[in-house]
Design a protein that fits this description.
Layout (H helix, E strand, L loop, with lengths): L1 E5 L5 H13 L6 E4 L3 H8 L5 H10 L1 E4 L11 E4 L5 E4 L2 H8 L4 E7 L12 E7 L9 E4 L4 E4 L5 H17 L4 E6 L7 H13 L6 E6 H10 L6 E4 L1 H15 L8 E3 L4 E3 L18 H13 L3 H17 L13 H16 L1
Bound molecules: 1,4-dihydronicotinamide adenine dinucleotide (NAI).
1,4-dihydronicotinamide adenine dinucleotide (NAI) binds next to loops.
């Protein structure tokens, strides 16, 4: 069980250690490989994402990544390609996804009794396309602080790929409905193409209900009627925002896991960021990264252990044992990881 580890910044190192502890409680023989990125990689290779790092992530195949701090207004990064050409990305996170060909970011979000209020029945997976849309970072400015524009890219190939992944996922996990979120009434060409590719793909999956909704109506609907959605597929920016909204409804960003899936390589990461406001205080909620670890266990075929980790998290939240302050408790990152680990061991014993 070789797993690449990116410890990240801010609360990253704290929640990574907690996640490793919980995953080790499954008894699986993990071999952790620290992979340098950002500041550590700059020290060693003079670049935040050198080709050596990209190769190591690819070779490890399964990676866990803690959040990275990306400075506002200055995150651009240029990576040299094997043929000597260069590609510039808008941020380090965007560069990791695109250098590795990670095309979809599934974000499962579930409500929990006791912490999710009227959203405890929430149980959705947001499939966010992550290679295109306005996040390709093709922006330019006109004059100095006069105007600026950004390109929104949608290709048939990427829209079909994410739609197919979403329906295959629904079929594999027995999910009943896939909903496409878009704004095709305004963005006729880009979101129109995304929606048409979704509709074409849906015809190959007659046993799964499919429908679509405007992104603004979907934001209203998920607040009013959380049971309305099941699997959701959407473009990069809508998925980024909608999944944070859903995490807030579930009770905390600290409960929202995620994965970035490519062909032959995956990076598992929480939906939240590096939370610099609470970094170093030992109070960060590690559960989103722990649950991302459960996604990794599923992806590697260790379903029994994956289920045990999810079940342990559910039990600990329901019992309100050692919960961190974001969940209304007074526990710490370490104490929460300790009780979840003990619960994992009990379940698997
Ligand atoms: P954030 O997600 O880091 O924090 C938003 C709020 O949620 C803060 O109040 C924070 O304390 C809280 N929060 C987040 N995760 C938590 C956890 N596990 N436990 C308890 N509370 C938690 O978003 P923000 O502040 O916009 O971004 C901070 C930095 O993180 C920025 O540099 C941003 O670029 C980066 N970021 C990195 C991401 C990644 O590496 N995948 C994703 C999103 C942001």
């Amino acid at each position: 069980m070789r797993v690449g580890i990116i410890k990240g910044n801010g609360i990253g190192p704290e929640i990574t250690a907690a996640t490793q502890r919980v995953l080790e409680a499954t008894g699986l023989p993990f071999e952790w490989e620290d992979i340098p990125i950002a500041g550590v990689a700059i020290q060693a290779h003079d670049h935040p994402l050198p080709p050596e790092t990209v190769q190591r992530l690819r070779a490890a195949k399964y990676n866990i990544k803690a959040p990275l701090i990306v400075n506002k207004l200055e995150g651009r990064i240029t990576c040299v390609q094997p043929d000597g050409s260069e590609l510039t990305y808008p941020s380090l996170n965007n560069a990791i996804r695109r250098e590795l060909g990670l095309f979809v970011n599934p974000r499962p979000i579930r409500g929990f009794p006791g912490v999710s209020g009227r959203h405890e029945s929430l149980d959705i997976v947001v499939m966010r396309e992550v290679t295109e849309d306005v996040y390709i970072g093709h922006e330019h400015k006109i004059g100095d602080d006069i105007a600026a524009e950004a390109i929104k890219l949608t290709t048939r190939a990427a829209a079909l790929k994410v739609a197919k992944y979403s329906f295959e996922y629904a079929r594999r996990l027995g999910r009943k409905r896939v909903t496409c979120l878009h704004k095709a009434n305004v963005l006729n060409y880009t979101d129109g193409l995304f929606l048409r590719c979704f509709q074409e793909t849906s015809r190959d999956y007659p046993e799964i209900q499919s429908d679509d909704m405007m992104i603004d109506a979907a934001c209203y609907t998920i607040v009013r009627d959380p049971k309305r959605f099941d699997v959701i597929v959407t473009a990069n920016q809508y998925g980024d925002i909608f999944s944070d909204l859903a995490a807030g409804l579930a009770g905390s960003l600290g409960l929202a896991p995620g994965a970035n899936i490519g062909d032959g390589v995956c990076v598992f990461e929480a939906s939240h960021g590096a939370a610099p406001d609470i970094a170093g205080k030992g109070i960060a909620n590690p559960l989103a990264l722990v649950l991302s670890g459960a996604e990794l266990l599923d992806e590697t075929g260790n379903h029994k252990e994956a289920t045990a980790v999810r079940e342990a998290v559910r039990k600990v939240i329901e019992a309100k044992t050692s919960l961190t302050p974001d969940l209304g408790g007074s526990g710490t990152t370490d104490s929460l990881a300790a009780v979840v680990s003990e619960e994992v061991k009990k379940i698997l014993a």
